[in-house]
Please model this.
Amino acid sequence: MSELMSSLDVGNDFFIFPARVYYEDTDAGGVVFYANYLKFMERARTEWLRSLGFEQHRLAVEENLVFAVVKVTVNYRKPARLDDLLEVGARVVETGRSSLVFEQFVRRASDGTVFADGEIRAACLSASGFKPRSIPQSIRKALQQ
Model:
């Protein structure tokens, strides 16, 4: 985990996706079930990609490309609860030939309380055979802007 994430100082270079905690996101104790933080993070990465002009379905069909999570490290810091309005942040911190590493967080929108943060590696794979492939130049170019 980078020094930035350890200090929980999130700057303007994060893509922010708003989300709300619904009843279905909580466990019997009334807090967000731990695996659902990963769902919030997945949605933020998907919307980040969409904001760059790339839709997951079109990439799979037109470019024979999918991204698959291959490694996750998550720190659970505090429990989010029903009706919390969230901000889910995502930013790319490493670009490899066929993978991207994201730093992400889930925090309360009103006061910035961080509920979870982590690092996620997503591999670029062929949609037809799920074998590693290079990240297309069009995506690399969008990442540089």
In short: Strands lie at 15-20, 65-76, 85-95, 99-108, 114-126. The chain has one domain: 3-144. Residues 34-51 form the longest helix (18 residues). Residues 1-9 have pLDDT under 50 and may be disordered.
